[in-house]
Amino acid sequence: MRAFLGMKPLLVLFTVFVLAPVLGRSLNPSLNDDVLGLIVFKADIQDPKGKLATWSEDDDSPCKWDGVKCHPRSNRVIELSLDDFSLSGHIGRGLLQLQSLRKLSLSKNNLTGSLTPNIAHIDNLRALDLSENSFSGPVPEDFFRQCGSLRTISLAKNKISGKIPGSLGSCASLAAIDLSLNQFSGSVPAGIWSLNGIRSLDLSNNLLEGEIPKVIGGLNNLRAVNLGNNRFTGQVPDGIGSCLLLRSIDLSENSFSGNLPQTMQKLSLCSYLNLHQNSFAGEVPEWIGELKSLETLDLSGNRFLGEVPSSIGNLQALKVLNFSANGFTGSLPKSMAYCTSLVALDFSKNSMAGELPAWIFKAGLEEVSLSEKKLSGSANSPVSSSIGNPPQNLQVVDLSLNQFSGEIASDIGVLSSLRSLNLSGNSLIGPIPVTIGELKALDNVDLSENRLSGSIPLEIGGAFSLKELRLETNFLTGKIPTSIGNCSSLTTLIASQNRLTGPVPAAMAKLTNLQNVDLSFNNLTGGLPKQLVNLPNLLSFNISHNNLQGELPAGAFFNTISPSSVSGNPSLCGSAVNKSCPTVLPKPIVLNPNSSSDSTTPGTLSSNLGHRRIILSISALIAIAAAAVIVIGVIAITVLNLRVRSSTTHSPAALALSAGDDFSHSPTTDGNSGKLFMFSGEPDFSTGAHALLNKDCELGRGGFGAVYRTVLRDGRPVAIKKLTVSSLVKSQEEFEREVKKLGKVRHDNLVEIEGYYWTPSLQLIIYEYVSGGSLYKHLHDGAGGNFLSWNDRFNIILGTAKSLAHLHQMNIIHYNIKSSNVLIGSSGEPKVGDFGLARLLPMLDRYVLSSKIQSALGYMAPEFACKTVKITEKCDVYGFGVLVLEVVTGKRPVEYMEDDVVVLCDMVRGALEEGRVEECIDGRLQGNFPAEEAIPVMKLGLICTSQVPSNRPDMAEVVNILELIRCPSEGQEEL
Ligand SMILES: *[C@@H]1O[C@H](CO)[C@@H](O)[C@H](O)[C@H]1NC(C)=O
Ligand SMILES: *[C@@H]1O[C@H](CO)[C@@H](O)[C@H](O)[C@H]1NC(C)=O
Ligand SMILES: *[C@@H]1O[C@H](CO)[C@@H](O)[C@H](O)[C@H]1NC(C)=O
């Protein structure tokens, strides 16, 4: 095709359009007009699929080309059929060369532009089919000027607008006109109504208006007329009765009015009459029974009234009868029992009353809609076995909003083709028949708003095609059967306002198509299965007003579940009900920002781990022990406090810890000697005990206990953590072994452990003191924190990552990574504290881990909630990921808004998906950050917070990635 854009087509065009008219074709005998015309046509359009590949300008004749048909003798092109060739573009003037063309068919392409007389020589054409393209604009008024031969024309399914050209009415040979699915407007040219050869006229789906003229009676060849979905008005003229060959009449969706002309009774060949959605009025005439060929009679959505004529019973070919949404009264005529071909019957939305006639459920019928009538009787009759011949073709039954009473027939299972069953809004009683499970084709069941009792049958699992099950507002009892898990197509399950008991079955988590679930206002109990979070398509899940208990599943849909969907369950906990769960969120420790130790040892990181036993002086011990024995109460503490305070004031030396002395009895403890151990040797607390009692010296509190600042005799500050989990701590040997192991961990980004003190009732850990406060304070504590630049933040993230990588390398899991455990050193470097303390606990089980240690909301990896997943160092990676997002966004991992809970990871993940992740970056940076660093860092944070532990990277990988992310230029600036 490209080749044609070179010299040759230009030459061809030049020859055809410039030379030929001037010089006459005889001067150019070697050039075949048809070849030229088609080549020019091809050059004008696009042929992306190469469907015209056989068309070559080197050929002498086009007769073997695809889509081309020649006259056997003259060898001139008489047919061009390029349907569905994927051609696009404008049709040029090439086809004008085809002097003998009889049939032009270009349907189902993507041709564009407006129709002009230059498309082809209309005067020879018998058939023109341009349907299903993208032609647009109006058709020129004289387009059909010389169309004497034209028999069929289709312009269907384009975007043509404007009036139907009047010249179309002059095409005297026309037998078929299809202008449907365009935007033709205005009235239909009068000439068209007089084309008495016309057999089929389809003007449907346009914007045409006006009335059908009386002259229509002349169309005595007319077999099918479709004026549907336009703006036609007026009455159907009497003349229609003269179109005796009419088989199909579709006037639906217009504004026709009046009654049906009596002449229509002569249309005995008519099999399809659709008057749906007009303003026809009056009674349906008795003569309707004369239209013996009728197969479809749709009068729905009009203003017909009165009784349904009993002559309907004469329509024995009738398959579809739709009288819905009119004003019919009375009952269904008994004669309808003779309509033995009926497949679908719709009398819904009328004002009819009376009993449901037995004939309605004969074999053959596929669809029955009698809703919103005042029918009464027993729904039993439909399917009772008393009917010898069960209606096995019945697919749709809609008897909703009537007054049926009695039980649903127990043998409903015989309706093996049933797809949709709507019995809602009646007064049905008794159980849901177990045979419902035999309905393998059933996809939609609505039994709501009846008085059904008993339980949801186990057999429901057999109806595995079910998509919608509505049982609300009945008196159903018992459990939701676990077999519901077999209905794998289920999208909607509504069973609210019943008396269901027992748990929400875990099997529901298998129904991955579930979108809407409403089990509200029942008596369901037990916990919600965690697996429900795996339902990917949930849109609503209403379990309000039951007796459910325990924790709401966390994650996916359940993170954003609306509080009203879970309210009214007093024992349910989780953020959506604004009630913390005891197993996950322990007491007040929870969100304390300063739970960690602090310390700075600017000087020696002594590699000398020389062991020295150090004994506390009496008064120091009294003070420390007093602090430990909280139960003594206020008075005792006050007394001791006074004592200690006086001793510190008067003789600081008395409180000094002296090395080497044995201390044999303690006033408040069991007499075991306390043991102080400093890894560096040289321990000297000058005011240690004082620190432990003085609130002013308290640095913070965490899951493991309070931390106090105190000063060694040499003036060096240290942080002392008093473990409050004493009862959980292991034996002395184990405790010492573990602390010593932690004491050996040295890293620039880890808070160093300098020593410990042990008695059976009191354990202290002595840490390096870090002056700069916690990262939490810097990020969230307006007053106490300093502004962190992007560079500071990056360094904190990187340093934290390095420290965790180091811990993991030593097989130590931190278990408690959070911003309040990351301290900021004097030169802005992060120092991670509180690591590995979980090892001091005698039992490292999930409960202890999640309640005592991973107490901070938002940092806890999901596997803590999942008993089957092993907890590994990947839980630190998760916490680190949350921390990264926290540092970059400046937001807490979980923020409680007025009536909303925002989970940071989800928020950032959502923003990333919507492509506006940059908006999440801490506004305080005021755009002063390199996006090429910040965005990858956020993505890394999100990867670290993957739900599945194995999807999270190792900390060592994280460090590598971060170093790669850091922009080279930035790095150099730092150097
Ligand atoms: C028409 O073009 C559209 C896009 O321009 C394409 O999606 C469609 O498949 C085309 N249709 C045919 C019939 O080639
Ligand atoms: C009857 O017509 C209404 C529209 O007026 C339609 O919604 C309904 O599906 C039709 N009923 C049947 C059985 O075709
Ligand atoms: C729910 O169960 C409780 C006791 O189990 C009962 O008192 C209450 O009436 C039940 N509610 C309903 C709506 O059945």
Q: What does the secondary structure layout of this molecule look like, with pairings?
A:
Layout (H helix, E strand, L loop, with lengths): L6 H17 L9 H12 E2 L21 E3 L6 E5 L6 E3 L12 E3 L4 E3 L14 E3 L6 E3 L13 E3 L4 E4 L13 E3 L4 E5 L12 E3 L4 E4 L13 E3 L4 E4 L13 E3 L4 E4 L13 E3 L4 E5 L12 E3 L4 E5 L12 E3 L4 E3 L14 E3 L6 E3 L11 E3 L4 E5 L1 H4 L12 E3 L4 E5 L12 E3 L4 E4 L13 E3 L4 E2 L15 E3 L21 E3 L21 E3 L6 E3 L12 E3 L4 E5 L19 E3 L39 E3 L2 H11 L5 H17 L7 E2 L15 E4 L9 H6 L4 E5 L2 E7 L5 E7 L8 H12 L9 E7 L2 E7 L6 H6 L9 H20 L12 E3 L5 E3 L13 H8 L20 H16 L4 E3 L4 E3 H10 L17 H14 L10 H11 L2 H7 L1
Parallel strand pairs: 3-5, 4-6, 5-7, 7-9, 8-10, 9-11, 10-12, 11-13, 12-14, 13-15, 14-16, 15-17, 16-18, 17-19, 18-20, 19-21, 20-22, 21-23, 22-24, 23-25, 25-27, 26-28, 27-29, 28-30, 29-31, 30-32, 31-33, 32-34, 33-35, 35-36, 36-37, 37-39, 38-40, 40-41
Antiparallel strand pairs: 1-4, 2-3, 42-43, 42-44, 44-48, 45-46, 46-47, 47-49, 48-49, 50-51, 52-53
Helix pairs in contact: 1-2, 4-5, 9-11, 9-14, 11-13, 12-13, 13-14
The site of one 2-acetamido-2-deoxy-beta-D-glucopyranose has 4 residues, from loops.
